[in-house]
Design a protein that fits this description.
Layout lengths: L2 E6 L4 H12 L6 E7 L5 E7 L2 H7 L10 E7 L14 E2 L10 E2 L3 E9 L2 H10 L9 H15 L4 H11 L2 E9 L6 E6 L4 E5 L2 E5 L11 E4 L4 E6 L2 E5 L5 E2 L4 E2 L15 H7 L1 H12 E2 L2 E2 L8 H6 L3 E5 L1 H18 L3 E5 H4 L11 E6 L5 H12 L3 E6 L5 H5 L2 E4 L12 H20 L5 H11 L2 H10 L1 H9 L6 E6 L2 H17 L2 E6 L16 E6 L2 H16 L3 E7 L11 E5 L8 H18 L18
Parallel strand pairs: 19-20, 19-21, 21-22, 22-23, 24-25, 24-26, 26-27, 27-28
Antiparallel strand pairs: 1-4, 1-11, 2-3, 2-4, 3-6, 5-7, 7-8, 8-9, 9-13, 10-11, 10-12, 12-16, 13-14, 14-15, 17-18
This protein binds 2-deoxy-2-amino glucitol-6-phosphate.
């Protein structure tokens, strides 16, 4: 939930740390801090509440801190309110001191994750004379490392290993020891962390974009592993202290993929990247006009033998599972159930041993989705992960992986990852239907051709985005918005409503259109905006009737439907048309105007589109 960066080499560390943190602000942005060491002098720490900009100003863009070894952090508060004292780095000493003051403590550290048993550990440390200046779990873990360091052999590796065995929860820890100048020690469990190497320089970060300006040579540190970083060198260890051999991976995508490229916001850039992301994801599994699922571990034999599918995810990824459920059951006639990961993991789900569990995640680090995956594996069920981030925890732990090729997604509100997850779901559904003899080869070929028309159809919708901007500008003061639809349209409403809520802070509800009159319709007042999504011809008239019911109660109607359904103008006050496609795939098109609505509403209300309040891009805590 937070972003961490570390550097050791010949260059000045502080500007590199600030640059890296600026690429990680999407992970948290309520406070930030850095600690830098110059040779064997004690470290100096500077921290500030608020955005990274404030820290950067405080340190004259890093130039006010001299030293070639350092660690930095951008925070999304879990334990302890957002404040300077709670921000990282934290120290093993009993008093935080002032900005730029020399830190005499043995251990200084930054942390991403949650230490679940921090209260118990704090009690233990209090008994040993430690006192605490912050409300964070991080301060506790740093002091625990200090405790073991002093108690045993003054060996960082042993102190960290003892700490790892003692703490419960998730962590990516990045530490400096006063007695080990020119070294950074790291450890991880269930929170992401990568290490980069170039000539004479070593980097550590929560995510690749933070170090991509400096190196493409990346190591993935595994769960319950530690590493010692020195200038240009990294050594990995397991909990027993044995050294582990690792190979580096070359990152193929470039730094521009993680820049705005002239767009005002990452979200708008990423909305425009959807045609390419969809095309790339299709190309990854379609070869010579056929879908190849062998490469993701699903042979025809296996596809035939799977008794049921259970899809598990959070947020928007969950919404793509709802779409896939409709498409898969309609096409392949295989039972699909969809679960929210945070529910699934604790309710003792009953799973068929011949079933397939599919987890879906952009980041591959969402704590609840990861836990759901582990639960399915514990039960001996075959697992497939649909993931965007290469080498992420979910990608590494699943039996098989279907990588969506959205590229790095920076805006907190997902758009292009959502679109590629839909494509992944369609490809599975079409192939399952074909292999299980539910569709003939002619329809199969037609569906694949149709999938390839989606990118240009998205382009066409984007050409008309100003019309949506104009409409949305008039809704800037809306208090409640309702999204209604049936079938796949209902699944898209879930996503449209979430987009609106998360970035424009306007309350909205997504409702299965037929369910509205069972209570929620009482919320419709004069002028309440009701958005009807109507792309499923068999359900069209029924949703129109539900829209009319809203209109009779004062609702102001927007209709979102395919070209040709012009009669919607008799009912709706404003209409948006999307190109026609096979109705199974309509979500890929109908979601685009809804993404644009969320975006423009946020802009018209003067909000921070890419970094909405209280949120972070990947939710690595439960
Ligand atoms: C969507 O805009 C949100 N950012 C959020 O719902 C997100 O989809 C969810 O947290 C799941 O994340 P993941 O795909 O990285 O697992």
């Amino acid at each position: 939930m937070c972003g961490i960066v570390g550097f050791v080499g010949k260059k000045q560390a502080a500007p590199i740390l600030l640059d890296g943190l600026s690429k990680l602000e999407y992970r948290g942005y309520d406070s930030a801090g850095i600690a830098v060491r110059n040779g064997d002098e004690p470290a100096k720490i500077v921290k500030s509440k608020g955005r990274l900009k404030i820290l950067s100003e405080k340190t004259d863009s890093g130039n006010a801190l001299i030293g070639t070894c350092g660690i930095g952090h951008t925070r999304w508060a879990t334990h302890g309110e957002p404040s300077t004292v709670n921000s990282h780095p934290h120290i093993s000493g009993n008093c935080m001191g002032t900005d730029f003051g020399e830190v005499e403590s043995e251990v200084i550290g930054v942390h991403n994750g949650i230490i679940e048993n921090f209260k118990e550990l704090k009690g233990k440390l209090l008994k040993h004379g430690y006192t605490f200046y912050s409300q964070t779990d991080t301060e506790v873990v740093i002091k625990l490392v200090d405790y073991y360091y002093k108690k045993y052999t003054h060996d960082p590796q042993e102190a960290i290993a003892k700490t790892m065995v003692r703490v419960r929860g998730s962590y990516a820890l990045c530490l400096m020891f006063k007695s080990c100048p020119g070294e950074i020690w790291v450890a991880r469990k269930d929170s992401p962390m990568i290490i980069g190497i170039s000539e004479g320089e070593t980097y550590v970060a929560s995510d690749v974009p933070a170090i991509l300006n400096y190196t493409r040579n990346v190591y993935y540190i595994g769960n319950l592993e530690m590493a010692r970083l020195t200038a240009g060198k990294v050594s990995f260890f397991n909990l027993d202290g044995d050294e582990i051999d690792k190979k580096s991976t070359e990152i193929k995508w470039n730094a521009e993929s993680a820049e705005k490229n002239g767009y005002e916001h990452f979200m708008m850039k990423e909305i425009h990247e959807q045609p390419k992301a969809v095309q790339d994801t299709l190309n990854s599994l379609v070869k010579d006009g056929k879908i190849d699922l062998d490469s993701i571990g699903l042979s025809d034999e296996e596809i035939k033998s799977i008794s049921q599918i259970c899809m598990v995810a959070c947020g928007s990824a969950y919404h793509t599972c709802v779409v896939t459920q409709y498409v898969m059951e309609s096409m392949a006639k295989i039972p699909v159930r969809v679960e929210i990961a945070s529910e699934f993991r604790y309710r003792g789900p009953v799973l068929d041993k011949n079933g397939l569990v599919i987890v879906v995640s952009q980041s591959g680090e969402t704590a609840d989705t990861l836990a759901a995956l582990r639960l399915a594996k514990e039960k001996g069920i075959k697992t497939l992960a649909i993931v965007n981030v290469v080498g992420s925890s979910i990608a590494r732990e699943a039996d098989n992986v279907f990588y969506t090729l959205a590229g790095p997604e920076i805006a907190v509100a997902t758009t292009k990852a959502y679109s590629t997850q839909l494509i992944a779901g369609y490809l599975l559904a079409v192939q399952f239907a074909f292999v299980r003899n539910e569709i003939d080869s002619e329809y199969y070929a037609g569906l694949i051709n149709e999938l390839y028309t989606i990118p240009q159809k998205i382009e066409k919708i984007l050409e008309d985005k100003e019309r949506i901007q104009w409409f949305v500008a008039k809704q800037a003061n809306a208090k409640d918005v309702f999204f209604i639809g049936r079938g796949i349209d209902y699944a898209v409403c879930l996503e449209g409503s979430l987009k609106m809520k998360e970035i424009s802070y306007v309350h909205s509800e997504a409702y299965a259109a037929g369910e509205l009159k069972h209570g929620t319709i009482s919320l419709i007042e004069e002028g309440t905006l009701v958005i009807g999504v109507l792309t499923q011809s068999g359900l069209y008239e029924k949703t129109v009737s539900n829209m009319v019911e809203c209109k009779s109660r004062g609702g102001y109607l927007m209709g979102l439907t395919s070209y040709g359904h012009y009669e919607i103008e008799d009912t709706a006050d404003f209409t948006v048309y999307i190109p026609k496609t096979d109705e199974h795939f309509s979500a890929s098109l109908s979601v685009i105007p809804l993404q644009l609505m969320g975006y423009y509403l946020s802009v018209s209300r003067g909000l921070d589109v890419d970094k909405p309040r209280n949120l972070a891009k990947s939710v690595t805590v439960e």
